[in-house]
Amino acid sequence: MRRLFKAKIVTDMRIVSSMRKLITRRQRIFPQIKLKSLKFLVLREGRSGLRQFELSGKAALWGLIALFILTPAVFYFGSQLLLETAYAHRVAKLRKDNAALHRLVERFEDRIAVMQREVGVLSEMDQDLRGHAQMPDINPGIRQVGIGGIMIEVRTDMDYLLPSSDVSLASITERLDALYRSVKLEQLSYEGIRDSLKNDLARLRATPSIMPVTKGKFTSGFGLRRHPYTQKYDFHRGQDIKVRTGTPVFATAGGKVVAARWDGNLGLYVKIDHGNGFRTLYGHLRRIGVEEGQLIRRGDRIGESGNTGRSTNSHLHYEVRLYRQSQNPINFF
Ligand SMILES: [Zn+2]
Q1: How far does the centroid of ligand 1 lie from the alpha carbon of residue 236, in Å?
Q2: Phi and psi at residue 309, to the nearest 5°
Q3: Cα 220–Cα 255–Cα 259 angle in degrees, nearest 5
Q4: What is the C-alpha separation between 168 and 84, in angstroms, rounded?
Q5: How does pLDDT run across 188-199, given as a tens digit for each residue?
Q6: Where are the alpha helices (DSSP H) in 33-168?
Q7: Ligand 1 geometric centre to CA of 36 (Å)
Q8: Residue 173 CB contacts under 8 Å (≥ 6 apart), including other chains
């Protein structure tokens, strides 16, 4: 039992010593692999068969070092070159865009100048029309609103993009605003002229301004007179025109027939409301050619003259009233 154990130990010792030998052998082998003795063989299959290159370890090491240094350098300079090319391209595009912007701004300037001239012409025409319409001219101070007016400061840091130093986005904006104000002012002024002319036209249409008969002798006039029928003094509210019975009678202005009937004094008569306070009356007619409520124009035939009512001879009794006040008709022929 004891011997057996010993033998076992001996055997174990042998294993240990053989291992030691193995280790020392290895230690001897490793230092033998030196850089100088390292050789790389590169085989390449070419057209003329297999070709062989030899590379020493040292050369390979230098090659590796060079590769480590050169690779980032190449990447760095390469990317720099790429960036510069891209930048140059972008700058060229921006220059082109800016040139286009210059042309656009110059066109704006030209157009603004053209519009300013056109508005000037409109303004002169406006003044002229006001003269014709007998309207007072617009206060020059108010007209200035368009030209000068309140300066609205437009702050911008983009003026460096514009063609020259005397052009600024603020001045362009200001001039456009001024143009807008001028156009607005002209619009208001023209509206005023239109309304005034419309009123004038309506007034002219409403004002009796022709003879109710083409010809005839003026007999009894407007004012105090001895009545031919009663022989008493009374106020004659119109103008008598001696005409043959059956003479056509015309409306002296446009309007609406408010009376077309019989009256003891006036006989058959027609009364027309012209608007603007004007009314005319045509009396002693033989025949009435219109109806109450009918709309008529100046010169329309409304009936025939006669000798009806309190009349001693064949004539037309013609009256003009303004706001119910009798007017002398001879002022409206
Ligand atoms: Zn009369």
Answers
A1: 6
A2: 75, -155
A3: 65
A4: 33
A5: 999 999 999 898
A6: 57-132, 140-147
A7: 151
A8: 152, 154
Copy the structure tokens of residue 123. Answer: 């303004």
**How much distance in Å is there from the Cα of 115 to the middle of ligand 1?**
63
Token pair 């004012």 is found at: 223
End-to-end CA distance of the chain: 171
Q: pLDDT tens digits for 141-154?
A: 777 765 544 455 55
H/E element, 17: helix 2-29
Tell me the CA–centroid distance for residue 95 and ligand 1, in Å.
92
If you measure from the C-alpha of residue 276 to the centroid of ligand 1, how many angstroms do you get, rounded to a whole number? 24
15-40: b (≥16 Cβ within 10 Å) or e: eeeeeeeeeeeeeeeeeeeeeeeeee
> Is 208 in contact with 274 (CB distance < 8 Å)?
yes
Task: Give the integer Cα–Cα distance in Å for 166 and 235.
Answer: 80
Compute, in angstroms, the gap from residue 212 CA to the centroid of ligand 1. 14
Distance 284 CA to ligand 1 centre (A): 9
Rounded to the nearest angstrom, the distance between the alpha carbon of 208 and the centre of ligand 1 is 18
The answer to whether 162 and 102 are in contact (CB under 8 A) is: yes
Using the mean position of ligand 1's atoms as its centre, give its distance from the Cα of residue 261 in Å.
Answer: 17
**H or E segment to which residue 193 belongs:** helix 169-206
Output the CA 318–ligand 1 centroid distance in Å: 7
CA of 205 to the centre of ligand 1 (A): 25
How far, in Å, is the centroid of ligand 1 from the Cα of 311? Answer: 8
126/219 Cα distance (integer angstroms): 48
CA distance 241 to 220: 8
Which pTM was predicted? 0.54
Model confidence over 94-133: pLDDT tens digits?
999 988 988 888 898 899 999 999 999 999 999 999 998 8
